[in-house]
Design a protein that fits this description.
There is one protein chain. The chain has helices at residues 32-43, 57-61, 77-87, 130-140, 160-177, 215-230; strands at residues 7-12, 17-18, 24-25, 47-52, 69-73, 93-96, 103-105, 124-126, 146-152, 182-186, 195-202, 208-214. By secondary structure, the chain is an alpha/beta fold. It is globular and about 60 Å long.
Amino acid sequence: MRARPLTLLITAGPTVEDLDPVRFISNRATGKLGFAAARAAFAAGCRVILVHGPVADELVRSLPRSNALRRVPVRSCAEMHRAVLAALPKTDVVVMSAAVADFTPAKVSAVKIKKARAGLLIRLKPTVDILKHLGALKRKRRKPLALIGFALETGAGRSAAQKLRARFAEARRKLESKNLDAIVLDTPAAMGAERAVFHVLRAGSKKTETLRASKEDMARRLVRLSFELNRRPKKSGARA
């Protein structure tokens, strides 16, 4: 019997949290790595579900057209959360590379907020932690699920060494508290860049894999990592 292809659920890009019909809160994520991971997973013979926030049209055009690669565009964290949960029953590995907003406006104005001399105070509320929710669901799920998260950290401290230690400590904390199988640590310098430094930390291991790589190379590493965590042999050759 032919083995079922590995199914990867990949998230990419930023989320956009609306303030009013004109303004929003977002971040500088471009979605380049997530889209590269989707292309690499497809080339490796995987089925791919790509859930992404607003990205450049050229990224969308870079995807192959196939029933084996399904694209789900979303806007907000809440929309991404719903899309991820809907795709989860068919998923073997989640690669959560999207830069999801941590906060969203407590109230969205139906009309444009007018300029005021006294300034403006905006109340924010936390968004749902999608990856933490998936980690909790993984404990209850019968079907195996591998979770790969991302930690974009600046680190606290006066020296570069102190900041680096703080970044690794925070990545380890997220790896354990969110019940992940692996986490990729990077910095804001990776946003929009073609190359960056990535650190891969895995659950149950004190070793760290450091890659100074293009996002295309890092995408291929994410696919190999997905196969390793799922314990399936990677298919040789690209999909026709």
